[in-house]
Each structure stands twice: as structure tokens, then as C-alpha cells.
Predict the structure.
Amino acid sequence: MRKKRWTPVMGGALAGMLLIAGCQPVGKVDVAQIIANNASVKSMEGKQLIALEITPDPSDSISADQQVFMDLFGTMKLNMTEVKAKSPLEVSVKGNFEYKKGSIPFQLTMKSQQEFLLWIEGAKKPILIKNNMDAMKESGEKLQKVMIEQMEQMQLRAVESAPKLVAALLGAAPNPKTISVQEAAQTIQGESLMLNNIHAEIYGHELIDLFKGFVTNLLSDEKALKEIIGVFYDIYAPMIEEIAKQAEEEELTGDGSSQVEMMLPFLKNKTLAVEFVYTMISEQLKKVMKDFDASFEQFRESESGKKLSEALNDKQVLKVDLYADGKQQIRKSNTELLLTMPEEDKSGVKQIKVTMAEERWNINQPVTLHTIDTKDGVVDISQSMGDVNASKLLASLDPKSTVYQLLKNDLKITKKEINMLMDDSSFSAASTKPYNDQGTVMVPLRFVSEQLDAEVSWNDAAKQVTITDPLTGKVIVLTIDSTEATVNGSSRTLEKAAILVEGSTFVPVRFVSENLDAKVEWDQSMNMVKITRD
């Protein structure tokens, strides 16, 4: 399995080179400034398309599950037709998720760093996704609350510092071998524009040299490296300092000695902290670069090195076109990432192609976000994320909707298979194994029900168990030591009475399974009960 890990690593490396390549001036165009300006955008409107295309390898045999995936998602698109940003932390998106068998419209709003609202066509209510920081704040722990508040402020500082950080990084970035600038006429949102088209191509074999060039430039520019370290200090130091203070108050003894006290002088003095980190980083980078070529050549001779060398070829390529206006703002971009699997890879995939296209207008102008209708309420999954299962998810969707059909019929997310070996040893109520009661197989009710995504509740006064199937809405009520039960209020008779032993309820396997729309089979050779549901 390890040999397949190169794919995301290579993709990430190529995409990462977009930030550290093609950034020195080309002719009269300051590429670094243009990209840095992009990080400074506060508000805008636009549209974006992200497409994925997977080319299967006909020489490889693939599993049935892999074939299902290819048939559904061999080609897919995230088509964001209306993107609006009122600020970096206030965004709304309208669009469609498109796959081979259909299209699912969606709408997303982010009104703060803590809260997202998602509407999907077919969902009965919009889905509210909250950052779990809010729940953590209510825990009452002082240090935890301080940490959360600082994390929120840190996120804001990160947004504010992004332009400065990007500019500092790009200042050390070398250009790839293929980069050019020419004027190009483009129409964006009905407006005809003459833009500077910056075209760059980065191939797999260039990655090592680009990395070397980037590190070499950083080492030769003390000011730039300290600028980068300073930005990270501005982002993280206030949070670390406050947490350190709170930890000192809560944990230190009266002797006054602690690692916290040793840290605080650095956290309070930016010049001292930057100088310390700069010395440490620069020394480490110098050691790396001193023997880099010799070490890398030695690495190439290893098994891992040979595989990396095979992967770093012209079949791995990132192509980028940026279109910038006279204000040095990116108005349009096209990106293509192509990854080709090595010959020895037998994943069934020959090539992966990712393309992105974006257009922007109304940059840094007032923008009004789209809103999602919540008059009928929302589904707050952040409060019960741990309780969300496949059946509950489907229950929140219209059975006629495309997304329901995709999840239920194509991906079969509610398909279940439970194999339970019979307990031939002495009976134990703590066991999840079934047992034979004079010809009737008894199974632990809670275990089987929850494996089938149902909810189980216990009424101690009435000695009753209630099972609720979220997908069908079916409600089953059983009473301990009774053969009578109800299903949606209608009376049913069990083969054997439900029995309670040491806090665990056991019931006839067919009753609980078949009333939860599952099938029961007996495997004589394995002495095993098999419960399945589509």
C-alpha cells in the first residue's frame, strides 16, 4: 500500500511549488506582487470550477467497489457559479456538485469563523455546522476557555498577516524554467479587459532544483527570513503567551521555577524571539544545504530514492495561467495539475487530472452575501456529530432527491452485514454473542439495533425497551419477560419473551432484525448468525 502514497505527496508538492515558483519579475510584470495582492483581497464576487478526471488503467484489474467509484466519480465537478466574499471570513457560495450520474445543487454561507450553514437540494432543512470551540467554552475550564479565545483571535491574525507572509515567501521564490508574460484580451462578467497573462509550467523533475533555489535564497536574505519568522511570531506568540500565563497560575508551586518562566521572555520580546528562531533555523538549513547534492545522490540509489526519481518526471506537471489587470489584481486564473501513476502501481488508475478555473470582479468593493432560508429550522449536526449515522443522514433527505439516491442506491451507505458467532461457552450478559434458547437464537438487543443504526432507550419503571429506526420512523416497544410487543402501535408476538440479564436485554434474532428491515441467515459450518440489510 505504501507505494501509492506518492500520489498525494506529489500532488501536494507540485501545488506547493505554485507558492514558491514563478515569482521573480518577468519583464515589467512583478509576479510576486500580483500574487501577494491576491492574498490582500478583502471582498469580491466571482465564480470557480474545480474538475477531477480519473483515467483508468485498462491493464489493471480492479475490484467491484473500485468500479462503482469509477462509474460514479471518474469525472466530477464542483461548479461554484456564484461566489461572494464580504470579508475573508464572510462568504457565500452557490453551485452544483456534478458527477457521472447527476448534479446536486448546494448553497453555503460562512458568516464567521465559527459557523457554516449548508443547504443541499433534497435536504429537508439546512445543515448548521458550528466550530466545536463554542461547546468547549461551556466546559467551565479556565485554561480551555482562554485557549479557545486565543485560537479565535489567532485565526483573525492569520488572515490579516497573510499578505505580508505571502510577500515574504515569494521574495525568495525562484522562477520555473517555463514562465512568460503577454497581453491577452479577456471578457469577465461582460466586461472586456486587456490583461497580463502570466503562464508558468512546473514539471516533476524541477521540484528538487526549485526547492534548493528557494532555501538558498532564504539563506542569502537574512531580512526576508526574519520577516517570515516575525509574521509567525505575530500570529502565534499572543496565544502561547496567554496560555503559558494561565498554565503558570494553575500549575506552578511556590518555588517560582518553571519552564513557563523560561519561555515568557521570548514570548514578550519579538526581537529576541525572532533572533533566536532565526539562528536555529538558519543553522539547520545550512547543514541541510551543505551536503544536499551528495546526500540526495546517495538517496537516489536507495529503493525509495529510485521510486521518487521515477515519479519526478515530465508526466507530473502543474500548468498555471494568471490574468492580472492594471491594478495588479488577479481577475482570472486557469490551473491544471496532471499526475501519472508509475508503471508498477496497480491501483487501477493511469492518470489523475485536476483543473481549476476562476474569475473575479468587484474586487474590494461592497458585496452583499446570499442568505439561506432557515424559517423552518436547521439541522445542527455539531451538537450530535458523534450520533450521526448513515440512517440519520438519509432520514434528513427527501427520498426522491438525487443526493438520497446517490447515498442510498449508488453508495449504499446503509448497507449492513453483522456476523455473530454463537456463544457455546457459559452464558454472559456482557457478551455480544448470541445464544440458543431451546431452538430460538437470542441476540443482544442494543448491539444489533445500534449496528443497524437504530436508537435504543430504556424505561426502567415499565421495564420496556424502545427501538426507533431513524430511516423509516418505525418504533418498536418490547417489555421484559413478555412475548407481547408493538411495532408502530400494532401488537406483535415474539417467539420467546425478551429477557434481561445483568442489565443486557436479549431478544429473538428474527424479531428485531426483520422489523428493522434486515434479513437473517444461519451459517451451519461457522455456527454463526448473519444479519444483512441493503
